[in-house]
Specification:
The chain is of the alpha/beta class. Helix content is 39%, strand content 19%.
Length: 350
């Protein structure tokens, strides 16, 4: 964090042929955003100049060679590459994937070097990012390798928070992937995140069942009874406020989700379909459990509207605010738990 108290917010630019640049530039076209943070975009002057011209955006920026040279009160662009990439809006190409990864790698290096405080990632394409030295299905998996901690895909929007037991796993492999050890790990990670990142002292967590109707007592699968229930009971006995497994089909429609601080879904679509339906495009994808803060919008590259200037930047803006909010909460949590006198005060208040 700078001496001014402004958080240095790093941004990886995502797929140049998608809407990443557009939602980033639209967010910071509003100069009031500079009151909250110092943005540092990892791309190049030429790339940003081309994108803002194509999209008809009025925005000034400061070109720098290193994130540590970012100037407060300005939009800073780190020149990660010197060449001018060919941009073909709406078309996923190996070139756009290559530059997306260059931007991401440079941003993570700056994050690890404390040149930026938090990272917000614009959308990438999971197919064209694949290379000999980059074989990851997405941001979360790569961040888990590069940063310390146990990663958890955590979707957040206002009071709705949905975590995933398994994220980018084929449906046919979900049940076999969910083990007692995985459930214990994810419950611990989501619980710690709720305390440290969201300021919730005693988080209450619901788990959704793996099978329809949570297995119907073994009639539609035994995993819920044999794998999930014993771990939930065990974690409850250790003091965690965890409940379930709940039948996923009625859990959100009945508003039962409002009774919990977070929901842990068994697999990707089980959690993300209701989340995105309820969050109306203002949701944020947060990678919980790591030693650094990373958020992203809850949408993809949206090739079908790329280059048309019609992309909605609401989710990206929410991702920026979420990153800033979580960073501040972590700072406060460290201060409170690291100071014996304040820790004693917390216990007395509790």
């Amino acid at each position: 964090m700078q001496e001014t108290g402004k958080i240095k917010l790093g941004i990886s630019i995502g797929d140049l042929n998608g809407i990443g640049c557009e939602v980033v530039l639209k967010t910071f076209e509003d100069s009031r955003m500079l009151d909250f943070c110092t943005p540092v975009i990892f791309a190049s002057n030429k790339t940003i100049s081309h994108q803002k011209s194509e999209l008809g955006l009025e925005i000034n920026y400061n070109g720098i060679q290193d994130a540590s040279k970012a100037i407060d009160g300005k939009i800073n662009v780190v020149n990660v590459w010197k060449e001018t990439p060919v941009v073909s809006f709406g078309v996923p190409t190996p070139e756009s994937g290559k530059y997306a990864i260059q931007s991401l790698r440079a941003a993570i290096a700056a994050l690890k070097n404390n040149d930026i405080d938090v990272l917000v990632t614009a959308p990438i394409n999971k197919n064209n990012i694949q290379a000999e030295d980059f074989k990851f299905p997405g941001h979360t998996d790569y961040l888990a390798k590069e940063l310390e901690g146990e990663s958890l895909m955590f979707m957040v929007a206002d009071g709705l928070r949905v975590g995933l037991l398994t994220d980018h796993v084929a449906v046919k492999d979900v049940a076999a992937s969910i083990t007692p050890q995985l459930i214990r790990s994810k419950i611990a990670t989501i619980s710690n995140s709720l305390k440290m990142d969201f300021g919730i002292r005693k988080p209450k967590i619901a788990l959704l069942g793996i099978n329809p109707h949570s297995g119907d007592n073994g009639v539609i699968g035994k995993e819920d009874d044999e794998v999930m229930r014993p771990v939930i009971k065990e974690m409850s006995e250790k003091g965690h406020l965890v409940f379930g497994p709940y039948s996923a089909d009625s859990f959100f429609g009945s508003d039962n989700y409002k009774n919990f601080d977070a929901i842990l879904a068994a697999y990707h679509d089980q959690g993300l379909i209701p989340f995105k339906t309820l969050s109306f495009g203002k949701g944020v994808n947060y990678t919980a459990g790591l030693n650094r803060v990373r958020t992203s919008p809850d949408h993809g590259t949206a090739y079908e509207i790329a280059g048309k200037g019609v992309a909605d930047n609401s989710s990206f803006k929410e991702a920026v605010f979420a990153a800033l909010h979580i960073f501040k909460n972590r700072q406060e949590y460290k201060e409170l738990t690291g100071n014996p006198l304040k820790k004693h005060k917390l216990k007395r208040q509790g």
